[in-house]
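Operator note (shift B, R.M.): manual run for DUF3606 domain-containing protein requested after the automated queue skipped it. Running by hand, logging everything below so the morning shift can see what happened. Input copied straight from the record, untouched. If output looks odd, do not overwrite the archive copy; leave it for review.
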Amino acid sequence: MSEDASKSSNEQLLIHLEPAWERRNWCNWLHCSEAELEHAVTYVGHDPDNVRRFLRQAR
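Run finished. Output pasted below as returned.
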């Protein structure tokens, strides 16, 4: 497997706040508002597991 392909698959596992449709999808999947998602990503980074844990502890 080439290095570029692994980078591409790794990037798909991260939460991106842009474009707007992707931000809305993450909000739906994580059951949170856009403001909560932005705060979580700012605080713990783009890893979905870390964001999910952060949101769970915040509730």
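Quick read of the result: The helical segments are 3-11, 20-30, 34-44, 48-58. The mean pLDDT is 87.
Leaving this for review. - R.M.
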